[in-house]
Amino acid sequence: MRIGKVVSSRSHVDVLCQIDKPHESERPPGPADITFGRFVMVGESTVGLIYDSQLQNPDFGNYGPRLSSPAQVGVFTPDYFDEQATLVSVLLLGGLEAAGGRQGVPHEVVPIHAEVRLMDDAEIVRFHQDPATAVQVRYVPMVLSHAGAVAAPLLMGVLDRLAGLFPQDRPRIEVLRKALLWQTTMNAIR
Asked: Taking CA 43 as the corner, what is the angle to CA 84 and CA 35, rounded to the nearest 5 degrees?
């Protein structure tokens, strides 16, 4: 399901997605579709993870004189644009190819206006399987270095999701979860 399009980037691995508005899509995304920690496909094959959000409202704090209410502005000025937007930050984790997932810094630059859509469970599993069909999460260091203060809760949510998708690997996932919890606790004490 399409949720929006890329409108900006902060770096090669961090892009900003503008969420589709109700009039821009047959089935506009709802709040449950753009939650923290959702896996998304950016463009044709780049895999990303939603890790932050921004609400953009240029009218906030604009208390100057007005000619009419916003509902009536369209009658007098047909070029009135709705500039309010919901934006989500997406950390790019790799790519999904015919042979499976390739985790790490994406090779290609994601173009402006690239479509962003939700990944289904089968795509998430393909991205996370190594050749022996065991779970792989090689992007953990990249998330820890780029997601800032939300990195630990983001990864905890990802590990919870992967534990459900890879029941055979729950013990390995639990080891990583405990190590991450330990590292987060020790960093908080410093």
From this structure: 50
Can you tell me which residue has the tokens 């959702």?
38
Long-range CB contact pairs, 143-150, < 8 A, 24+: 143/49, 143/51, 143/91, 143/93, 146/11, 146/13, 146/14, 146/91, 147/51, 147/52, 147/91, 150/36, 150/51, 150/52
Q: What is the pTM of this model?
A: 0.84
Query: How many Å apart are CA 7 and CA 16, to the nearest integer?
Result: 6
Q: What is the pLDDT of residue 65?
A: 54
Q: What is the pLDDT of residues 77-87, one digit of tens each?
A: 545 556 789 99
Ranges of the chain with pLDDT below 70: 59-82
Q: Which residue, among 184, 183, 159, 161, has the nearest Cα to 172 in the 3D structure?
A: 159
